[in-house]
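Table 4 source record.
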Amino acid sequence: MTPHARRNVRSIAWAVAIGLAALSLCGCFNPFNPLIAKNRVGATDPPPYPSRADLVVRLFEWCWDHRSIAEYEEIFTDDFQFEFAATDTAGNAFRDRALTRFDEIETARHLFVGGGSSPPANSITLQLDQNLITQPDSRRGRSNDYTHFKLIVTSVVLRIKTDEEEFQVTGAARFFLVRGDSALIPAELQARGFRSDSTRWYIQRWEDETVGSGPVANSAVRARGGAWLAARRPGSEGSRAVSRDAVQSPPLDVTWGFVKRVFYPTGR
């Protein structure tokens, strides 16, 4: 290469470098940066694939942390049930039946995305046990089939912030899990290509064991929770006053069942 040609190559290289630097400084899109994506918004950590019983619970946790209803729709069997804690008065209206998969997904949709009578969450943080230990399913007829049915009991620390209130949930939860080749796959998932699959796990039952403020202690918190629920009833005039109080108040210490009662789809 002649000296003149080398000078031309260096000049072009410098021009490209200066152009890229200018793009960076002015905040323009840099097409040479593979980490920048047009639709890259929010979470950067991908959802875990539920190839094991513990991983479907991790996916459950991920969905709450990221308020992701799309993945949430994929983790429950068609015969899924949510059972309120026996001491949780929020579940009084559901003592004759457990919440179904439809109930669970629509309640989560109102909380994650909106569309219900209460404002959706601005932020959710869910912390389960660092090590999720599987054990045999304790239900009758399942305890001897550890290959297809498992149980995970975990502690729970959940915090939810909305425009009107902040909730805190602590206690435990019991997740009954089933392998895909023994699971009842919902028709809507089958239409999307989900099949009997031994490499995927689902949640079949969830028993709430969170405690809230307890049956006796912290009556002021319980009274505030009752006032907040009353303010959410159709025709109520008290929601603004409750919202103003909530801004300066500590989180409502409630059960997971209470949260579900708040965001449960009306008309069901």
